[in-house]
Amino acid sequence: xxxxxxxxxxxxxxxxxxxxxxxxxxxxxxxxxxxxxxxxxxxxxxxxxxxxxxxxxxxxxxxxxxxxxxxxxxxxxxxxxxxxxxxxxxxxxxxxxxxxxxxxxxxxxxxxxxxxxxxxxxxxxxxxxxxxxxxxxxxxxxxxxxxxxxxxxxxxxxxxxxxxxxxxxxxxxxxxxxxxx
Length: 181
Known about the structure:
This protein is globular. The chain is an alpha+beta fold. The protein is built from five helices and nine strands; from the N terminus they run ααββαββββαβββα. A hairpin with a 4-residue loop joins strand 7 (134-144) and strand 8. The two termini are 19 Å apart. The protein has one domain. Strands 4-3-7-8-2-1-9-6-5 form a nine-stranded antiparallel beta sheet.
């Protein structure tokens, strides 16, 4: 291996940031300190990036975001950090959404952002949650049409209940060698 491969990883050059903001749907006031943290660009992302450059298939388009329970060896309040081998199959999926192309943006010439709003009233009306007062999750996954995982994040448990909505913004930044040295 050469020195660059021994020193740097994919996460040095492709950086993910996950922001989760809970707010009251009546007032728009933010309820608590938002989760705003680095997330992990996992090993499957290499295949997505490489194949996406040479393929005409839609399989490599980032298309879905899922929320679920995956604590690793930790707990809901203090989950184990994600690792590069995490995939969509590690997550017990609670909510799964196709990303709306209207909410995919390009904040600058080196970043792509994916946004989604979780609306509590609609979620709690879903058949699987109709008898629940709240829904909680502690992991999120950004993946392709072919269920390959691009980015993965574990975080302390987040609750959604009547009157509370959640805005999720997942930004992927492509960094240069100069940025990481």
